Amino acid sequence: YQYEGLHNPDAIRVLKLLPGGFGSPLKCEILEVRKSEDPSFEALSYTWGEPVFPCIVQDAKSNTVIRITENLSDALNGLRYEATERILWIDQICINQMDLPEKSHQVANMGDIYRIATKTLVWLGKDDE
78, 90, 95, 127: which has the fewest Cβ within 10 Å? Predict the structure, then answer.
């Protein structure tokens, strides 16, 4: 997946998690929204786990993949709806982790992001953990 730069100082990315059954391939779209336009999304709070990225989520627009941690893959599988999309803000995906100026700016604004989210979801791990 190739990140595009954000177009406005108050812009953030959100993930549109596309519907699917548990265990089916994860598919999404990455969207840019402006905080000043009162976007509707849920923020996800979770632990990254080990800094290895063995799992993928497919970007439906570009047909490319985003590598993610196993814990995030478990969270997305557990939170995904079967019939409707879900709009989420997830730091691991919505912040370009390789762009240090963007990462610094977005991390500094995480408090605002969680504050404007319609709700914050907390993922503690799979039921069997």
Answer: 127
Widest distance between CA atoms in the chain? 42
Strands 64-68 and 42-45: unpaired
What is the per-residue DSSP string for 98-121?
Answer: T-HHHHHHHHHTHHHHHHHSSEEE
Residues contacting 117, CB < 8 A, separation 6+: 41, 42, 43, 89
The β-bridge relationship of strands 11-17 and 27-34 is antiparallel
Residues 42-81: tens digit of each pLDDT? 999 998 888 899 999 999 999 999 999 999 999 999 999 9
103: nearest Cα among 6, 1, 2, 20:
6
Whole-number Å distance between alpha carbons of 21 and 124: 21
Sort strands 42-45 and 86-89 into parallel, antiparallel or unpaired: parallel
